[in-house]
Structure to design on (239 residues):
């Protein structure tokens, strides 16, 4: 716990290097004072000042009963202030240091939302998509009855479809390079992982193309037949 705390504190210190020294020079402030100050600044939407107060509380009173609330509030303030990297670090610190805190589901939901704002288009690195999907999934595991559950489920569906679209882009790349066996293998894995998303018919079409290019005509025709049966109107004709 001390090692984790130290690691989190070091990261926080590095990330807060830009904070003014005004608050840090004030002595005599209790942990309750700092929490109240941060909450007041947050209510006033002065998120940078709020984050400074919460950060100071964490640094001066790392074992305070209020430290977990300050850590969560710090992450929220960083997020509200559009400090994406700092907010992600703060959420990760909260989840690592306080895994049994009642605010853990909220932290997971907000982390998912934060990461969802940083997604790259299909065909590029999908690390943030994977992380956002993980955060929302963990949220649903911990709080399936939450009022936010429906929104989390919707986000998960969108993220899974984005990953399927990314797989489609990779398969298309293999086809353009005439790496038909790689395209087939990738398409099969993608269909196994994403059999029920809007992009699934496109994956099936790509699989049939990969099979056709390898002379696997019967297998390709079977894929197209399945496509036509499952998705009428999408066409199972040869492409």
């Amino acid at each position: 716990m001390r090692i984790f705390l130290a690691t989190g504190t070091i990261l926080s210190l590095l990330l807060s290097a830009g904070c003014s020294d005004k608050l840090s020079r004030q002595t005599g402030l209790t942990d309750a004072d700092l929490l109240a100050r941060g909450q007041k600044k947050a209510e006033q939407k002065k998120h940078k000042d709020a984050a400074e107060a919460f950060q100071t509380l964490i640094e001066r009173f790392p074992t305070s009963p209020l430290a977990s609330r300050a850590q969560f509030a710090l992450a929220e303030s960083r997020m509200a202030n559009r400090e994406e990297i700092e907010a992600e670090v703060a959420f990760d610190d909260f989840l690592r240091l306080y895994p049994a805190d009642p605010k853990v589901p909220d932290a997971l939901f907000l982390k998912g939302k934060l990461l969802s704002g940083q997604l790259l288009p299909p065909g590029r690195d999908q690390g943030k998509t994977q992380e956002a999907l993980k955060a929302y999934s963990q949220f649903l595991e911990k709080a399936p009855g939450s009022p936010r559950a429906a929104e989390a489920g919707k986000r998960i569906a969108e993220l899974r479809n984005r990953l399927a679209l990314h797989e489609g882009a990779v398969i298309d790349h293999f086809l353009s390079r005439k790496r038909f066996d790689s395209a087939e293998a990738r398409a099969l894995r993608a269909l196994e992982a994403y059999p029920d998303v809007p992009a699934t018919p496109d994956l099936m079409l790509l699989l049939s193309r990969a099979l056709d290019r390898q002379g696997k005509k019967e297998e390709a025709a079977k894929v197209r037949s399945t496509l036509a049966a499952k998705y009428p109107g999408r066409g199972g004709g040869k492409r």
